[in-house]
Amino acid sequence: MPSRSIHRAAILAVLTGSACALAPAGCRDHTPPSQRRRAAGSAGAVSGDVAVAGSNVELVGARGETLEVVVAGRATWQLAGSAATVDAFEVRDVTVATASTDMYGATAGVGDYPDELVPISGAAGSGAAGSGAASYFAIAIARDAAPGDHAGTLAVAGGATYRVTLRVSPAVLPPLPPQRVWAYYDPRELGGKLAAPTDAERACIAMFRARGVLLSPDLPVDAWPARRELLAGMPDIPAVIPDDPATAGSAVQAWIAATRGTGQVPFAIPIDEPHGPARDAVATLAAVVRRSGGGSATFRYAVTADIDPMLGDVDLFITGHARRSDAVARWTYNGRPPAAGGMVVDSPSPSLRTWGWIAARYAIPTWYVWDALYWHDRHNAKRRHEAGLGRALDRRDAVTFDDGDDHGNLDGVLAYPGDPGDAAVPCRPSLRLEALRRGLEDRALIDVAASCHPAETAALVAKVIPVALGDAPPTGPPEWPDDAGFAAARLQLLALADCAASR
Q1: What is the DSSP letter of 276?
Q2: Of 102, 311, 356, 413, which is least packed with CB atoms within 10 Å of its CB?
Q3: In this structure, are residues 430 and 413 in contact, taking their beta carbons and an 8 Å threshold?
Q4: Comparing C-alpha atoms, which of 379, 498, 467, 410 is closest to residue 11?
Q5: Distances in Å between the alpha carbon of 210 and those of 89, 200, 335, 462?
Q6: pLDDT at position 63, please?
Q7: Whether 73 contacts 44, CB under 8 Å
Q8: pLDDT, tens digit (0-9, with 9 covering 90-100), for 366-414
């Protein structure tokens, strides 16, 4: 096995000098595809977790890490040996006809955005993209891969063939924890019921879980037996209790009884984003939960609101304004720049990759996402007199949530519905979901690096994320770097994480 110092030098050699550490102007092309407007570019251009020099493409990653490569046009990837497996996708555009409103923060504007990933069948280790405008490859490095260089090829249809070098670091990335992101969805989008999950739901849940995201509705206690296996290993169980104090206590007691001895703790958000009199109702209901046996170890009463002792015995605040100085348990949710990267497709890049870094910087155990499969604008259907679940997702006009005042492009949509009748792929990932996964893997790499070099790792994270969430100003540009800055910082993490392999 090569020495750690050799691998550290090799990793850093992918950068173009020390000025590249967080300064994109000094870097080679590490720009991931992310969610930027489709721009006119040269056919066959290669980007992602790569350094491109002439006809050579280099990738560097930890064992257990999944890297991404995007190619403008159709392409085929091959890698000798078993160091990594490859999933190939065609990248399809969605059209932003009207930019998202200010509720979602800054927007990159109208245009066509590459976002939907359509899986392409092929043998492990290779994949040919289809007729879309771009090809996307997810290269999953095996945890038992031999450190060092592994050769392959990347062939662009009608264009160049690149010599590929996959450089595997000695560092080992553990499996992503099961619940650093909880993404809500409505089972009706997949033909399911709370107490009767469908095979399509199971497939989508597995797809999200492979990317470090718990996809789950919040559950009444009578749905727990049918969904329990889908929440295996999850420390926190999204639950539903009534917001009526007269009946909430019995629901809390039923949940405590159902989960006793499992090591899993249910939590519920019976009153969402309370304002005015609803804030008094939060405190009243909190007292009921506490009298019924609720507490941090049995049943957590949660509220999507900023930390405020006037809200009563709240066990868990879920706030978009968490501060590093907070001394109480809190999660965060969704995202609006400059506090956190945005979920909508026209949010400026980088967006969801920021979440993993922000969570590390702010010690956020779980990030709550509303929604992940909002394929129909059900919350606004009644206002528009629409039948069923309401207006369906339209890739030619990406507005998914429209309450008459505010609208967001692919708000609540991190995965797309598959083709009708394609039971094998009921959910297709988005580039934004892949960016979220990359951020979660970065966070896992932060943990590994911190076990070796805690001070250096903390300093790097602080440099990448000086302020965010409640410490960020309400408006203006965010203080995190651009895509190339995140890519360069990841390589620095790899260099810091090498020592963990020898423990």
Answers
A1: T
A2: 102
A3: yes
A4: 498
A5: 16, 16, 22, 28
A6: 96
A7: yes
A8: 999 999 999 999 999 999 989 999 999 999 999 999 999 999 999 999 9
